[in-house]
Amino acid sequence: QEYTGLKMEVVEWPSELKEVVSSKLAGKKVFLVAATLRPETMYGQTNCFVGTSIKYGVFAAKNNEAYVCTNRAARNMAFQDILAKEGEVTQLLEIDGSKLVGTKIKAPFGIVPEVYVLPMEGVKANKGTGVVTSVPSDSPDDFATLTDLKKKPEFYKIKPEWCAIDPIPVINTPAYGDLTAPALVKKMKINSQKDVKQLAEAKEIAYKEGFYAGTMIVGEYKGMKVEEAKTMVRKAMIDAGLAFAYAEPEGFILSRSN
Ligand code: ZZB
């Protein structure tokens, strides 16, 4: 699986983390790295998701940078020469996912340039980087989760203003309009992030519609088919130093867990 690793720079840490960060990560530019298959949707980022029971590490990268992701992803990155030294993983700090919630980060290419880290139940520790950038206009999972968070911020231990950004139109699809994911969630009567079966189905439809029938309605590639824009947006992000190619060696993972 070839992902785009999106570099979301930390703008402000939650107060609880400030002390440990200033001692352990002094002088480093720190990024949460989200793994995405839909770089063309990055204009519509409204937040980022982590799993609250997942353990994350902060790993030394090149040019005095540091990346926040799972240990498993860091090992994969090391072998793709994405970290400080090829084949080596240097963990500077460990952070519980629950503590990352509320961190303010940059959203590369986002129409809203700065967003917050929020909790999502469905984030898998063994997939991608364990960090997911959220695009509620085109991802049914993201839209359903944000709807939950907006209903019960106290329950999820978040501030309402962290999830206040409404879905941003990015792609038009003939079948579902300018907000494909919200339209699908409504049509399929999906009530929350816990409706995993219907969400998997909605995701499949959103992928197909977006990729084969979608047209960009914002950004530099406005008017272009998603099929063509996808690789161009990805390349632009990589050229700008805001992203990198990150491959998930599935065979390797399988053979290790068997
Ligand atoms: C932004 C985005 C925008 C995504 C969209 C999807 C969509 P797949 O197809 O199952 O491999 N993701 C990445 N890592 C994780 C994780 N550890 N746990 C849970 N979800 C994760 O899914 C790949 C997508 O799942 C990635 O692409 C990421 O969300 C999320 F408009 O990034 B995506 C219709 C989907 N639309």
Describe what you observe in this structure.
By secondary structure, the chain is α+β, with helices and mostly antiparallel strands. It has a single domain (2-257), classed as Valyl/Leucyl/Isoleucyl-tRNA synthetase, editing domain (Isoleucyl-tRNA Synthetase, domain 2, Alpha-Beta Complex), CATH 3.90.740.10. It has eight helices and twelve strands. Strands 1, 2, 3, 4, 5, 6, 7, 8, 9 and 12 form a ten-stranded mixed sheet that branches. A two-stranded antiparallel sheet has the order 10-11. Strand 4 and strand 5 (65-69) form a beta hairpin. Helix 4 crosses helix 5. The radius of gyration is 18 Å and the shape is globular. The two termini are 19 Å apart. Bound molecules: ligand ZZB. Ligand ZZB is lined by residues 35-38, 41, 122-124, 127-128, 130, 132-133, 135, 138-139, 203, 206-207.
Helix/strand-derived class? alpha+beta
- The parts where pLDDT drops under 50 for at least 5 residues are 254-258
H-E order:
EHEEEEHEHEEEHEHHEHEH
Gap from first CA to last CA? 19 Å
CATH superfamily: Valyl/Leucyl/Isoleucyl-tRNA synthetase, editing domain
Oligomer: single chain
- Radius of gyration in whole Å, from Cα? 18 Å
Bound molecules: ligand ZZB
CATH architecture: Alpha-Beta Complex
Domains (count): 1
Instruction: Compute the number of strand runs.
Output: 12
Number of helices: 8
What CATH first level would be assigned? Alpha Beta
Which term fits the overall shape? globular
Main β-sheet description: 10 strands, mixed
What's the average pLDDT? 96
Helical content band: 25-40%
CATH topology: Isoleucyl-tRNA Synthetase, domain 2
